Amino acid sequence: MKADQSLDCIGLYCPMPIVKTAEKIKELRQGEVLEVAADDIGIKQDMPAWCHATGNEFLGVEEEARGYKVYIRKSK
Amino acid sequence: MAEREKLTIAVLSGDLERALAAFMLAITGAAMGMEVSVFFTFWGLNIIKRNEGSIKSRGIMRKMLNLINRGGSKRLKLSKRNMFGLGTWMMKRLMKDTNMPSIDEYITMAHQMGVKLVACTTTCGVMGLSPEKDTFRSEVDSLAGAGYFLGEARESKVTLFI
Fold first, then answer.
1. Preferred mutation among A12, A18, A19, A45 to probe B, highest tally of B CBs within 10 A
2. Residue B46: C-alpha distances to residues A59, A60, B14, B66, B137 (Å)
3. Taking CB atoms and an 8 Å limit, are A54 and B109 in contact across chains?
């Protein structure tokens, strides 16, 4: 998936990937896609919940050798 | 924009693991766009006492209490497996190894994210903590009572007692 910006959260446990995502998303414009790389398996449940709470669109998660890549579209 | 959902947390415990849980939830709530207040009472006040110097109080019993129960984020202990400090030292070491923030880092983060940190005036009075600024760390926003806590709690989507 093509992303406009990316965020590296490898090595960070919950809740840091969510906290960093909330900070990073401010740099994106509406409609742009953020790619978050993380290796804490909690991200698979946490990121959809964060998107639901904040009104952003959860695009999906890809499993990789080092962990996961999660994609979010900034919706507002 | 619609009014932000509120998260209100009361922290009664001064145990390290409970303090960590409280701050993890507080900053996650803030990251989720919630308006977060954390209300510290009884042993929870130890989390937000400043680390340096001594805590001044009046009366022999309160002086003794504040000597034995010095508090400060760097002095918090695990409630279980403290093993005279060895368990807590090991836990802090493991936290560092897994890139988990310390309580100090969590407090700074919470403050920067707009989490309100409030000390309970009643327990300050009972335990002889003078509400002047120098008892607590600078991140503490205000002092208030049970009315404030319930006022926030009744408007909150989520209320936790830790």
1. A19
2. 43, 42, 6, 10, 11
3. no
